[in-house]
Design brief:
Shape of chain A: elongated
Helix content of chain B: 40-55%
CATH topology of the largest domain in chain A: Methane Monooxygenase Hydroxylase, Chain G, domain 1
Strand content of chain A: 5-15%
Largest sheet of chain A: 3 strands, antiparallel
Strand content of chain B: 5-15%
CATH architecture of the largest domain in chain A: Up-down Bundle
Strand order of the largest sheet of chain A: 2-1-3
CATH architecture of the domain at 11-98 and 110-189 in chain B: 3-Layer(aba) Sandwich
CATH class of the domain at 11-98 and 110-189 in chain B: Alpha Beta
Order of helices and strands of chain B: HEEEEHEHHHHH
Structural class of chain B: mainly alpha
Oligomer: heterodimer
Radius of gyration of chain B: 27 Å
CATH topology of the domain at 11-98 and 110-189 in chain B: Ribosomal Protein L9, domain 1
Helix content of chain A: 40-55%
Chain lengths: 199, 244
Amino acid sequence: MGSQSYYDVDAILTDAQKVPCTFELTVPGLGYLEGNMTGDIQQGSKVELPLWLGEMLALRHVQPSYVFLFKRLTLPHSQSLNTSSLVTLDHPSALAPRVLNALKADPRTVDLRALAPHFYSLGARILDLFEEDDMVHVLSETFKARAAVIAGQAHNPRGALGEGADFMRGLDETERKLFRDAHDSAKAVRTWITDLKKK
Amino acid sequence: MALPLPPGLTPPEVAFLCEMELVSIIPRQRLDSLDLLGGSIPALVPPHKTSVPLWLALLLKRQRRANIVPPPWLAPPWLTAILEYETEHPDTFSPPPRLPPAPGDHSIVFSPPFLPQSTVEAGPDALPYHWLELGEMLLEAATDDFEDGESVRRLLQGLREVRMAKLRKRTETLDEPGGIRMNGIGGMEVAEGRSFITGVVDGLRRIRATYEEKRRERGTEDGAGSPRTVDDYDDDEMETQLTS
């Protein structure tokens, strides 16, 4: 993950966001993921798992001996054993085609925070897993268009409170940091100029 | 991990660097030449115009021992002309002062911020690198040396807003090849725009990281065909061994 450090809170929170997963195998004793405390998790059941777990289960190849064990334990003859991973990942609802279409239409009006507090980080992680050229373009265009608005708001002292308030509430964490940076640097220059007058 | 200061220079640091720039003063008192680490300062003889570093000029001005001569570009007509240029060209900043011809082998080469051409000998038609800091500091310390300080202040404010708006708009045009033309931008503007622009660039890079990596891989694969054929050859050989 390069720049993301082990203690990066944002990276940890991104990892905790849920993604829909479909189990490819029946796993005994994992029913509690579905809220079924004692039972098994059935093949084909859809569960929302945190990204870190989903990613691990989807990418880790199942050892043949384990598959054999599952077979012995559960005896599901219909179970297809040619799949090599436990679950298949799906796109999280925050990156559903509906959302991408809305972003294509007008990036400024979408409330990213309601979709996912770490929208862009989640997007970057998903793009690590899936090859989606279209999503790359939509996300980078969105980021650029919204960054321009954020810069405007950061330099306009009334913008963040007045008509821009709705937009500001919809910023995800990356964008909030961007806003804070832009605001702080403008403030530093203003402070320097006022300090000059005090001397 | 968490440094108290953001990367880059803070506004007071930029202003500190700006104090090395030379400005012209008209001394009111005599002062012998000073040999300082940063170079010697010529003797000050009252009615003669002399170039001294800004910090010394401010000090002498505060002690009422000298008057500062504002640089030629820091006058309403020229600033108005530059402001007009800035508003008429929404895509470019007004060009920086022309660089002097390359010096001979035996002379000291100054880096661009500290050229005499940027301040004392600056042409009136361009903003030097430290225009904002220099302008603000001179206006603050030596308002009475300006003919029309108030309109200079207003014009500087206008220039600052126009240019910062342009700088922020640049990020929208930040495209795949990457790069923002910032010719003619000043030191304080860099300090102000740095964290936002680098934030946008970093964000975009994170989104596009995997995409770019794959594209690069695809590029190298297309470019270098020979290693792949070797691999294919090995595979074929293994298959024939298995089947035979």
